[in-house]
Give the backbone structure.
Amino acid sequence: IMRRLCRATGFTENEILSNRRSQPIVLVRHAIMYWACRRTTRSLPEIGRAMGGRDHTTVINARVKYPEKRKAMGRNLREVR
């Protein structure tokens, strides 16, 4: 998931895993965590650790905020079946 989104956005994995909080990087980071929650069986703490040692509550926040950010951009995500 990370490699695919890094290729699509032009960011490197190191930039995504860094502590930088610029808006474009945070959006990609949230997208990676959101899709990791939806597409893998990894737990929230496992996803957080893979994302640079982040806490599971950060992953929860990303899972909630990413669809809101997409909707604000005019790009809705499909409902989970």
The helical segments are 2-9, 13-17, 23-39, 44-50, 56-72. The two ends are 20 Å apart (CA to CA). The chain is about 65% helix and 0% strand. The mean pLDDT is 92.
